[in-house]
Fold this sequence. Notes:
Elements: H1 15-20, E1 26-28, H2 37-45, E2 49-53, H3 59-72, E3 78-81, H4 88-100, E4 105-108, H5 114-122, E5 126-131, H6 134-143, E6 147-151, E7 157-158, H7 165-175, E8 180-183, H8 189-198, E9 203-205, H9 207-210, H10 219-227, E10 233-236, E11 249-252, E12 271-275, E13 278-281, E14 292-294, H11 316-335, H12 344-383, H13 387-413, E15 422-423, H14 425-430, H15 435-456, H16 463-487, E16 504-505
Parallel strand pairs: 1-2, 1-9, 2-3, 3-4, 4-5, 5-6, 6-8, 8-9
Antiparallel strand pairs: 7-11, 10-11, 12-13, 12-14, 15-16
Helix pairs in contact: 2-3, 6-7, 7-13, 8-11, 12-13, 12-15, 13-16, 15-16
Amino acid sequence: MHSSYSEASSLPRTALCDLLGCRHPLLLAGMGGVSRSELVAAVTEAGGFGFLGMVREPLALIRTEVERVRQRTDRPFGVNLIPATTDPQLLREQVELCIALRVPVVSLFWDVHHAVIARLREAGIVVVHQVGSATEALLAQEAGAQALIAQGVEAGGHVRGRLPLMELLTQVLSVASVPVAAAGGLADGRDVARVLAQGAQAAVLGTALMATIDSFAHDYHKQRLVQAHAGDTVLTEDFHINWPLHAAVRVLANSVTCCERGDPSMAERTVIGEEEGRPIYLFSTDSPLRSMTGNYEAMALYAGKGVDRITSIEPAGERVQRIVAEAAQHWRLLEGETVDVASPVCYAADVERERHAPVIARLDELLEAERAGARVTLRSAAHAQDGDMRALIEAVHRDEVKWCAMLMRAIRSLQGTPSSRTGAFYDKAMAFEKLDERLAFLNRGQGWVVKKLRELLPMVDDASIRQGLTEMLQAHEVNLDKVNSRLGLARPRADAVPSQAGARLE
């Protein structure tokens, strides 16, 4: 066993580790074609958690790969499916096969597919959903996802959102009531420690584990990864065959992205390779695999922005152990474990936390209320029949998400731990079946927030937090007037807002 493996025990074991049954908060992305049984088993045996990438794969291959993982390890693992890219009949069969094979975890990506999530949950399978926005995180939670993966725009392969990981992670964490993992450009222990310190419960690695002996990627692809720099990656829609329109991918620049292979939208298809009798087309989303022959340079060479920190090809288990050990060292630095617990510095930190406690409590109360507002507006926008009304509710929703993220950052900056609860206001608002009545109640809640912000601002010393709260106050006042104008109502008095608008929902 690797000599530094014992150091990994100092990484936190998170609620997501408990949910998935892994020892370390490190996940293998379910990369289609690349994440096969050999790689999944190696990562899982090293203490991480692996997903088989079975997107659009035939049932026989899924069955074979699941059996091969189980021959190599007795640890839990998962299967990754993508409903949006899969024929509906094949998708139903894939889901039923996962149930029949007693696969413990299934991860999903792209559109939130309520029926698939419901069927998997009914069968007792843990559902993880990868998302590219806070709104999508809320939708996945509403549909029943038990954990989320926030994928930043730095990620290799198909990229759902457009926000950098650090910004997206804060937004998703601010609205999530389930464990959240982070993905996108993560390649080493420092990256893992950073996202854990920000509040993620695991880091997801793709490119770093593609460039290993155990991955099913072709050697050509692996060598290109080792030679590449972060600036060599591009986000493009050129590789589109087999996926919905406008589904961007991050790849290494090649003759396709440099416009040397013609127009990607051309109707005629050109064969550039083969996999066991199956043609590989120019502009398809197929990446080079061990089982393929053809012009690898013109295929989709998926790579995340962390590629510049991948300098060799090694066994996946060794890479996992090394990354976890490095992450543990950086985690100890971030957590300040070298400080003597009896030192004046430590006492000073305790005093600061105690001094900030009243402000943290009020920020937490606002966070729970804003999280409730984000959920109410998400559901209400879907019910709006009028286009202008829907646009207004969606704009308020975006604001609610924005302020959730700001409040979470403020609480963390004061060394507090943000609540993951949702305010009881959510259930009270959703009890109104008529949309106009619900929005009127929502605006009374916004009035409550305005009142609380006015009370809080004089208590805040930090200039950055004061600025954020001031902007939040102004935005709520604007939204109050917009919604009331749309409903034909006057702005509610500060003392006429619902009591317990931010009360906690256990």
